[in-house]
Amino acid sequence: MKTTLVILFATLISAISSNSVEIRYFGEAPEQSSILESEIAKTPFSLTDSTKQKQLLISLQLKLQQEGYLDAIAEYANDTVTIDAGAQYSVSLIRVHDSTSKVTKLKVPFTKNNTEALLSEEADRLSAKGFYFATATVTSVVKRESSVELDVSINRGPLVKVSSSRYVGLDKTNAILIERYLGIPKGDTLSEESIKELERRAVAIPFITFKPPIVVRPRAGYTEADLEYIFVERRPVSIFGGGGYLPDDPSGLVWNLDLRLRNIFGDGREVSVVSDRRASSRSNFRV
Asked: pTM of this prediction?
């Protein structure tokens, strides 16, 4: 019984200790302070477990470095995590090495998201020219006083041509009819702009529903790619209408009926049959 009480008491002391860790900032707290505090709060480590302490401190420093605080330091002592974030670095210059070198001066915070956006912008520039699988990679980071310079290497890859198109979800609809709406022949150069245009055309097809995005499936060698569209065929028959009774009319009955037959034979045509009667002397029927 005494042993059990000792174990319970030790467990209680450990739990209190693990929840009593404070966080202090040396200088001004960074914008990401709430993220750091959340990271500490959800990390149940023992004050005597040096390995978990180091893992937490490394995690905190990494989060700060991804937000541009390259000189960030996190330390633990006396139940307190002390963080010295330092200055947030910015990107002052980017050198892009392609077939020719391009130097761009700018000033944006050196964060993970901003860096990925810069790389995506360079890759998209080539994708628009038909190098659909082009990639941009940071090869070096040069630190200055409070900024960094990035060297970016470009891998254009081959020009990509459309090999074929595959339409998923079509049961009755003729695939040749869909190709007429989309208007992209085999052998066209693939680019982000052409994909967006094809998606716009697919959405505009009136008798089926397109589920974006278009799936690009590269073939071996990455010189050709297949395009996969996902469609949902709309119900072929829809009925809209209503009816009622008019006590002041000799016949008493009025109605409005709209019967629509859509894409019955897979050729995209629609037939509408409308019948309405508003009075004994006013009735219509049209196809």
From this structure: 0.67
Please report which helix (H) or strand (E) contains residue 31, including its range: none
Structure tokens belonging to residue 110: 């050196």
**pLDDT per residue as tens digits for the range 221-250:** 999 999 999 999 877 655 666 655 566 666
Q: What is the pLDDT of residues 248-259, one digit of tens each?
A: 666 666 656 665
Q: How far apart are CA 286 and CA 272, in angstroms?
A: 8
Residue whose pair of structure tokens reads 């150069």 in the numeric block: 189
Centre a 10 Å sphere on the Cβ of residue 24 and count the other Cβ atoms it contains: 11
Strand, coil or helix: 141: strand
CB 170 within 8 A of CB 178: yes
User: Do residues 256 and 239 make contact, with C-beta atoms less than 8 angstroms apart?
Assistant: no
Tell me if 92 sits within 8 A of 108, measured CB to CB: no
For tokens 């609809």, name the residue: 173
Are the C-beta atoms of residues 102 and 95 closer than 8 Å to each other? Answer: yes
